[in-house]
Amino acid sequence: VRNSGEFIGFDQYAWVLSQPKFWIALRNTFSIFLLSSVPQLIIAIFIAAMLDQNIRAKTFWRMSVLIPYVMAPVAVALIFSNMFGDQYGVVNTTLQNLGLPAVPWHSDAFASHIAIATMVNFRWTGYNTLILLAAMQAIPREYYEAATVDGAGKIRQFFSITLPSLKPTLIFVIITATIGGLQIFDEPRMYDQYGTGGADNQWLTVTLWLYNVGWGEWNFGRAAALAWILFLIILAIGAINMVVTRSLVRDDGTRDPRTRRERRARARAARERLRTDATAPARDRHDTLRAAAARATAAGEETTR
């Protein structure tokens, strides 16, 4: 093995960045990520808010939303690939029975992104729902009772109490969805029988192309370079999320050092006030006794005269 290789520097990275397929895969990855993450978050918040109410058989419904998450990704992909079949799929058959034109789920890039995003939403909405539901149940019920007394309705309570209280949990869900969305592989891999991302790379993602380069073409050097580029992209987006997170949680005093210093200063000032208030009655009593003693002494002297 020694002296059998040649250091080529950044040639593999330059090759990856010079390939049009990389930019197509990157565009498809972000498109599928946006089509899946945004509706997924909205639906998860809505379902969690419904399950947070006092409904009948709520334990059953809370367990039911987790069923898609525990299903095998391959099984979910196979089910939805048959649903979105071009000729005999359930969706196109229903559309044609209603007199509507069929949708080219495999030949059209945007339609294929919607189909794959639907698979992702089906799998991960229940998982995010339970996380948000746990955060909602941690909100003190006294807030809602006080809002009800003040005349606030359910919608006003949701936007004024629930959503602000979910801020840290929403940040966690968004970060995990971002990392997972940029690494999407199972759904596009199983969307058709070939697993190459479409004839014209309609739904080719970065991780799927990495798999094809590494284990299809057996070029592990280029696959490793592609993996590092994907890692740097995720790292950059994670850094942006961290900056946004620090600004959003600044009011909570949990991550911003300036806020922590201010809280410590306020705590010290409060302790000083408590210490002052505790010693003030003793000083007052001492002054009262001294004044009484002085008056008694003066009265004794007057009596002596």
From TrEMBL:
It is found in: Cell membrane. GO terms for biological process: transmembrane transport. PANTHER family: ABC TRANSPORTER PERMEASE PROTEIN (PTHR30193), INNER MEMBRANE ABC TRANSPORTER PERMEASE PROTEIN YCJO (PTHR30193:SF37). Residues 26-241 form the ABC transmembrane type-1 domain. Residues 290-305 have a biased composition (Low complexity). Residues 269-289 have a biased composition (Basic and acidic residues). Keywords: Cell membrane, Membrane, Transmembrane, Transmembrane helix, Transport. This is ABC transporter permease. CDD domains: TM_PBP2. It holds the Pfam family BPD_transp_1. The keyword Transport applies. InterPro entries: ABC_transporter_permease, MetI-like, MetI-like_sf. It comes from the Bacteria. The chain crosses the membrane at residues 30-51, 63-85, 166-185, 225-244. Residues 251-305 are annotated as: Disordered. One of its GO terms (cellular component) is plasma membrane. Gene3D superfamilies: MetI-like. It is a multi-pass membrane protein. Belongs to the binding-protein-dependent transport system permease family.
